[in-house]
Amino acid sequence: MHNSIIYFVFHLAFALNTLLANSQFTSTRNFYPAAYPLAVRSPYLNAWALTQNGTTSLNIWPMHWDDDSILGMTGYVRIDGVAWQWSGDSPIGNRTTLENTEITPTRSIFTILAEWASGDPKQVVTWSTTTAGLSVYHQVSRQMPQPMTEIKNIAEDSNVYFAMSQNPGLTWQTAADNVARTQFMAKGRLLNTQDTNFRRINDRFIVFALSVDLGGIESSTSSTVWSLGVVRDPVVMYSSSNGPQSRSPFFRIQYNHIGDAIDAFGKNYSSAVGTANQLDRDIMRDGDAISTEYGNLLALSTRQAMAGVDITVSLLADGKGNLSDVKAFMKDTGTSQRINPVDTIFAAFPIYLYMDPSLGGLLLDPLFEYQASIVTNDFDVRFAGPDLGMYPKAFGSSGNNENTALENTGNMLVMALAHAQFSGDGTLIYRYVSIIRATLSLNDEERPVFFHQYDLLKTWTDYLINDSLHPTNQLSSDRIAKDNMSNLAIKGIIGIAAMSGISKALNRANDTEFYSTKASELLTQWAQLATLGGHVVSIYNEPSSEGLIYNLYADTLLQTKLVPKDVYDGLTSFYDNRASQAPRFGLPYDSNAAGEAKAPWTIFAAATTTNSSTRDKLIDMAHSRAAFNETAGDFPTTYKTDTGQSFLNYGQASPAQGAMFALLTTRLEIKSINVPASSSQPPDNSDSESTDSAVNAGVIAGAVIGSFVGVVLIAMCLFLLWRKRRQRRDQERLKPIPFNPNLLYRQRGSSGFRLSAERSRPTPAQPSSLVDASPRNHPSRSETYARDSHAPTSPTNTSQSQAYSTYSGSQFTTDTSHLRHEIANLRQQMVEMQAQQTAWAPTPPPRYDNSGTT
């Protein structure tokens, strides 16, 4: 029997091997990446354990995803009076050796597992300890938080929480690092006291410690649970169609108070582990059915992809989250500062389709909403925009450059149809087919607003019809700027085919046929220009150009069957031939980027092959880099084909690695798309002649009267706007037209947003070992979010009714915003009038079988 006491500073699930033998380091799957995801939950809770060059010691500081900031964390275990350090690089205590690792999609399991702490050594921090309720938890934050700001990829407005459920053996302490550690090593317990001298993080490093006495342990292992959280509220500032708003974390739908959330988090651990275990089994079963190497790729990429996304809600008057207003925002981690970058979402989309397609819809909705409601002349609405701005401020892209138009527009149309096909929910595509749009006059000095019916998706598709076949002055997501790129051209053509599928779901027969015909015509011309010697060249008429034509994945995913099988067969043979002479880490994604490989595009290409042998060769290429630990860094998207070295700002820890799920998504069932049963459904104008005879005189009269009233009301509003703008010629930014939808996505389940029971389960918060919550060398990011009030200078039995004080952000109200609200109400009345007219001859939404045919 061993008498064991554990000392922590911060949280996750912790498995302790009390034997601490120096056996050979092994992996249960023979998989040794350069970094293990330790606490990888969000863009700012993103800590990794570095195991470069096969290190077998956890006595190193965990690092932020960019390897630029130390995340101070120390853990000790005291067994039979002897203290062992199992995490961190403190000089105090005996060192331990890592014996075994296993990576699953939801957890990293070590024989000795470490945990996380946060901080910025240049800033003064304040802290508190709460001992009331079901948990004891430390809270630490900057004394002067900087809202919506980050330094070196770390938020400057975070609240960090470190907690453990109440139990008789629990003790805690806040103190200088050497004081708390020495106390534990000597006595095996902490003092339940707080250092009240708030100071800079690197001034006598303050640690936030928890320890638990496990008593006698008769078996070889014993476990305990603690929790680490990084909370920001608001998470994102967003320029919605109702104006700028603060977006709060999704857990606010249930918890108004952080203490309640922490208690529930710890209490729910057993259930979360059970869910995680089942999700692990499901993902690994599906992955291993293809190959063990593919299963490893899924295991390493899952949390990396999910951690790039924040799921948010707006707040109701009572402070709770509004379940009818859920949106997701992605940070372009590892590549840029952009928020909801279209190209990165496209790469990551396979994991969201696999986990739950509604996640993809939540990411697309803000992009659609913003572009559908723009009231400026500096944003070209003919094609899709690239992003929503710079994280965490989703105020819209500063401009919409045409040199990325094909890439972004093709991506958006493909993802819109994919979301509808795999979720069965046509709400998103329905909403953005026919909208009321406002634009500004370019000629009038007063720049009045004009309103017109606008079909967002059709406008984008018309751009693709005109510009896809011969891409000119275009930049691909790979940063290649060449004319006539075949891979970019095929994305645009598949985007047109996607619009045909969207039109079919919306019962627009003529549009369905028109876009299908256009896509087929362009595909025929593309094949003549792009194919040479049985494979596809990357640049038309350049026989020496080659690469992975990974955008064919969109055709495979959507099952449009646009591209003939002989093209796929030719590329498969070409890849197989090139694989025999490929460098260690795979084929270049394009000859114009010689020596560079991309894991996402390698797997996209693998998903398009027509035999398993070639498919597995491509999988093995990506796996070789994922398992490579001779260079530092989390699993990057882009690296050298010969050395595996990654590139700065080319995808380290990027959510784009959700592309690893591409092969699984091609096996998912396409569902019948259900369009909202609304009498205001946009009619198929191109088919109107077939229904003319069914329209009676009453309907015609109602339409005429309704149209006349609508024109008069709009004219009155325009006059009021002109007069007000003449009085106030300010340069304030115009807000989007108000649009107040109900819940955009019919969430699965009866209790709000959750992943489906069969395949789509939530990735639980990562387990973690408690360690010195010594905030070490972390630059902190600044953003505005709901915060606990700062703690007093002594331990507090803070009531769990303590509420957030939510930062609401700037309220950019102008005279035009009120007018837009009035116009929105008028528009709603007009829609109701139209509904009365169309109610005479409602057209049911189309139904499809599993193959997608009528």
From TrEMBL:
Positions of the Glutaminase A central domain: 291-436, 452-664
Keyword vocabulary terms for this entry: Membrane, Signal, Transmembrane, Transmembrane helix
Pfam families, A to Z: DUF5127, GtaA_6_Hairpin
Biased composition range(s): Polar residues: 791-812
Domain Glutaminase A N-terminal positions: 112-286
Membrane-spanning ranges: 699-722
Bias type Basic and acidic residues, positions: 780-790
Chain segments carrying region Disordered: 753-812, 831-854
InterPro entries registered for this protein in UniProt: Glutaminase_GtaA, GtaA_central, GtaA_N
Signal peptide boundaries: 1-21
Protein name per UniProt: Glutaminase
Source species: Moniliophthora roreri (Frosty pod rot fungus)
